[in-house]
Amino acid sequence: MTSIAATLGIRERLRQRVLPHHEAWRRQDEYAGGCLCDGCGERSTSARASYEVDFSPDVTPQSVKLHRARVKIWQYEGESPPIS
Ligand SMILES: [Zn+2]
């Protein structure tokens, strides 16, 4: 998948509210193997690890899983502040 396709996919998911625009509450910096990435729908593997990003309780969805490469795109497209 090219980064342009990934960007368009994430933009669409933001529009459909599959991915929230909200600032991340916390990020689980761990390998979430076997889970599907909410940014592109592909499975995460040890080579393409994912972050689990949680949001505050008033946000829907309350947590998403994203490939590491997708987190930056989502933050940029969603105009979210960077996760420190
Ligand atoms: Zn992905």
State the separation between the terminal residues, measured CA to CA.
Answer: 27 Å
Query: How many separate domains?
Result: 1
Sheet with the most strands: spatial strand order:
1-2-3
Q: Calculate the mean pLDDT score and round it.
A: 85
**Fraction of residues in helix:** 25-40%
**Count of helical regions:** 2
The tally of strands reads 3
Shape type: globular
> In sequence order, what are the helices and strands, one letter per element?
HEEEH
Distinct small molecules: zinc ion
Major sheet attributes: 3 strands, antiparallel
Which stretches are low in confidence, meaning pLDDT under 50 for 5 or more residues running? none
Relative strand content: 15-25%
Structural class: alpha+beta
Report Rg: 12 Å
Query: What is the multimeric organization of the chains shown?
Result: single chain
Which features would summarize this protein structure in a list?
three-stranded antiparallel beta sheet, 2 helices, binds zinc ion, 84 residues, alpha+beta
Please describe what this structure looks like.
The chain is α+β, with helices and mostly antiparallel strands. The protein has one domain. The chain has 2 helices and 3 strands, in the order αβββα. It has helices at residues 3-15, 68-77, and strands at residues 26-28, 50-54, 63-67. A 3-stranded antiparallel β-sheet has the order 1-2-3. Helix 1 (3-15) crosses helix 2 (68-77). The longest helix has 13 residues, at 3-15. The radius of gyration is 12 Å and the shape is globular. 27% of the residues are buried. Zinc ion binds next to loops.
